[in-house]
Amino acid sequence: MQQPNEDRFRHRDLNWLSFNERVLQEAADKINPLYERMKFLAIFSSNLDEYFRVRVSQLRQMKRVKKSIRKKLALRPSKITKQIIQEVKNQQNDFGDIYKNHIIPELAGNGIHIRDAKHYSKTHKKFVESFFKDKVEQHIEPIVLDLKKENELFLKNSVLYFLVTFKNEDKLAVVNIPVEECGRFVMMEDVQDEHNITYLDEIVRHEAFKIFPENDITGIYEIKLSRDAELYIDDIYEGVLSEKIYKSLEQRTDGQPTRLLYDAKMPKEIQKKIRKLLKLGKIDMMPGGQYHNFKDFFSFPDPTNNKKLHFKKLPALPHKTLDKSKNYFKAIAEKDQSLHFPYMSFAYVERFVEMAAVDKDVTEISISLYRVADESELTNSLMKALDNGKRVTVFVEAKARFDEENNISWGRKFEEKGANVIYSYPKVKVHSKIMLICRQEGDVNMRYAYIGTGNFNAETSAIYCDHAIFTANKYITKELQRLFKVLEGELLIPREKNLLISPFSTRQEFIKLIYNEIENAREGKKAKITAKMNSLEDEEMIELLYKASNAGVEIRMLIRGFTCLIPGIKGMSENIYITSVVDRFLEHGRIYLFENGGEELMFYGSADWMNRNLNRRIEVISPVLDEDIKQEFKDILNIQLNDNVKARIQDPEESNMYVKRKDGEKEIRSQYEIYNYLKKKHKS
């Protein structure tokens, strides 16, 4: 008997909180050095900010959709939002416990003390007074409010403020904490081997009487307002439903408040006053600790220079072929070449583009850019290629969330240099990570392709785990060339037989591959699906995986982020086992492996099994055709599947339990094992 819909699918926004809990677990895990655990607190905080700006904002807007449409789509925004708020409160409590009872004492144990205003020494007070006068005061912009009059209060998104109360209860004030101008953390004078650091917040708090010299302050409470990002309805709903939702929403001002984080010590009557001033609902109020914006811990200073407080450096590994090659075209023509980030350097990609830019035989370079770096060797090489008369086509994704401005700016720079620049289509994002270079070699027009799982971005490649392959395979490169012609408007469909390209063929091909495993299982053959991705949300794919599980197909998945599939349920998903690895680097690659009756088929690329990746984005999933590379990818996949240090089990209870190591079993921390594996494999 089929389970009710709500028992068959998790809500993506609730399960995302389970992912962020795994990040918080890393902050508590003493396997990680102290400063790295502080960075995980920063990642947790940063993740949560974006979550409220995008996901919770979307839920809030859905409450304004007509009831008939909400009912049709089974939307329950109020119920889900309440569940989110409760879970976030629980996680914030855990966060506070980790910070106060673990991080602070361990910092002190290493001679690093975070001082608040109450515990400033005479020397500290003298320093603080001088620092405030010289560096801070000029950036302070106090706003005094008379509550007996009509007030309009605008707080900037994610900026820290103090809410100040006075003996006169009809008076309130808001003071900005100028972090952008002065930094969040300030080093004070040291005593012997002791290092003293204070928050900028505490300096402003200590000097508040200078901002309000009337000397009638009764309370100072930190607050931070999150405002929504643009509403990306097309990321979830499509076609007619999407249009109905848009029409059902009234015109709204971008940047609507979604959450006010406030010091839990703030009295209830003051909470009511600020809520009224900002026109917030009760559900928008989120109690927190004394400090907010813990994402600033990315820049927390280490005055000790103690290497033990940080991850040991892992030097980028040399690629056994490309490292020595002075002609990548020759090396790739002879054999496909794979790259694995961050274990290997992104410089190999940059060098390839540089070679193409100056090579007299290269005629064309086509590339899709999803998140463009501010300045990079790659963009400089593309500019050089234009100077050298190459035809350069750049597809710029103008709607890459939070990167729109930078992407469009680069698009204009390329256009000014003479590039053929194409911006994103309405309601279609180009999320693929692809590049094609055409080179005239005698009478032959050779094509060289790069297909990856990560962005063309040197900075993110140092922290994201991704995979890529250079290939000169004539079938793959021809289909990629057709795709670029689709992007340029010369063709309507790419007519692919080897590549899986969304929204044209990816879904259909994956469905065929899964049904093939189902048929093999029914015939008594070995049937298995192994899939690594960031997120799993598409209901059609999930239902098909349930069907495969019930047919006896063994399904093993690695999902870093959220999953709407519920594994391990008898009669529904008992043959599905999912783990998630959260560690030093961000797992970002997608690899799909099908048993195929003993003749395994492997694919990799940019698409998760999410509705948007299958239906509304240009994505490229490529078969891994080179047998050596296929084995390399499989070895890497198996190392991750066997992680027993940083892998968590995604079970029906969402308990995030670590995989337990069996007695006598080797300790496998997959990211380090992969590094060692590649080091050995690519040794000269």
From TrEMBL:
Record-linked InterPro entries: PP_kinase, PP_kinase_C_1, PP_kinase_middle, PP_kinase_middle_dom_sf, PPK_C_dom2, PPK_N_dom, PPK_N_dom_sf
Start and end residues of each Polyphosphate kinase middle domain: 124-300
Cofactor(s) demanded: Mg(2+)
GO cellular component, one term: polyphosphate kinase complex
Keyword Endoplasmic reticulum: no
Keywords: ATP-binding, Kinase, Magnesium, Metal-binding, Nucleotide-binding, Phosphoprotein, Transferase
All copies of domain Polyphosphate kinase N-terminal, residue ranges: 10-114
UniProt-annotated catalytic positions: 431 (phosphohistidine intermediate)
EC number(s) stated in the UniProt entry for this protein: 2.7.4.1
Modified how: An intermediate of this reaction is the autophosphorylated ppk in which a phosphate is covalently linked to a histidine residue through a N-P bond.
Protein residues bound to Mg(2+): 371, 401
A GO molecular-function descriptor: polyphosphate kinase activity
This protein's record includes keyword Lyase: no
GO biological process: polyphosphate biosynthetic process
Domain Polyphosphate kinase C-terminal: 328-489, 499-671
Catalytic activity line of the entry: [phosphate](n) + ATP = [phosphate](n+1) + ADP
HAMAP family: Polyphosphate_kinase
Record's protein name: Polyphosphate kinase
Organism: Christiangramia sediminis
